[in-house]
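REQUEST FORM: STRUCTURE PREDICTION
Request ID: SP-0412
Submitted by: Lab K.M.
Chain count: 1
Length (residues): 263
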Amino acid sequence: MSEDSSASNGLLPVEREDRILGYLQGRGMGAVTELSRALGVSEATIRRDLARLAARQLVRRVHGGAVLVDGAGFEPPVLHRRALRAAEKERIGRAAAGLVKDGETIVLLGGSTTLQVVPHLAGRRDLTLITDSLLIAERAAKLQGVTLVMLGGVVRPSELSTEGYLTHLCLEQLHANKAIVGARAVNLTQGLMLEKVSEVATFRECIGIADEVILVADHTKFGQVATAVLGPLSMVHRVVTDSGMPQEMVAQLGALGIEVILA
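STATUS: Completed
RESULT:
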C-alpha cells in the first residue's frame, strides 16, 4: 500500500494514533502488519505513528510492533486530543459559552472540549472563572472582564491540570453558578465516566459546588464506556454536543429531563 493510498483514508495522524492506542488497549500488543490492515494505511505510516507514540512514552516498541507502556492510559494527552474533531469541539465550545451570563462564577474543568469554551467568553463582564487547567488559565488570563481563579495542586503532566489534596482544599472554599465539564464516555447505564480514577474526586467536588452542570462532549463519547464511574446522568442539567448525535440518544436524555443542545 502506498503512502498516497494510506492518506486517502481521511485520518489525521492524531486520529490514527488515537485508534492505535485503542487497539493496543484492547489487545495488549499490536503488530505493524495488523495495525496497517486495521487502519487501512501503509506499514511505513504505522511505524512513524508508533515512533511518535513511543517518543511520548505511551507505547513501547517490540519486534514487529508495539505494546502499551505500563500505566499508560487509553486517552491521549490533552495537547494531542484537541486536534481530534476540532470543528465539532469549536461549535460545542461556542454554544456552551452562550449559556454563561455576565456576573456569573463558572467552573471550567480541563479538557480538549472545555478548552474551546474559553475564546467565546470574550466580551463577558464581571465573570469569575475557576479552573484546574493550565491551558484554560493561559487563555482566560488574556480576557478582559474575567477574574481567573486557578486551583492549586499537583500538576498532571498529560493533562496540564492540577489534582490532589490542595485542589480539594481550594474547592471547599468556592461556589459556582455553573460547572462546565467533559467526560471520557457517557452511557445510560453507568452515566458519566472518566479515564482515570484519580480524576473522579476533583470532578465530583466541582460538580458539587455548582448550581448547574453542563456537559460538553462530542457525539462519539455517547454510548461508550471508560474506566472510572463519575456519577449518574441525573447530575447533569444540560448536554451540549454536535449534530452527529443520534436522535435516539437525544430522546433518551430528554426523557431523563436533560436539555440537549446540538451545536
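NOTES: The mean pLDDT is 89.
Reviewed by: T.R.
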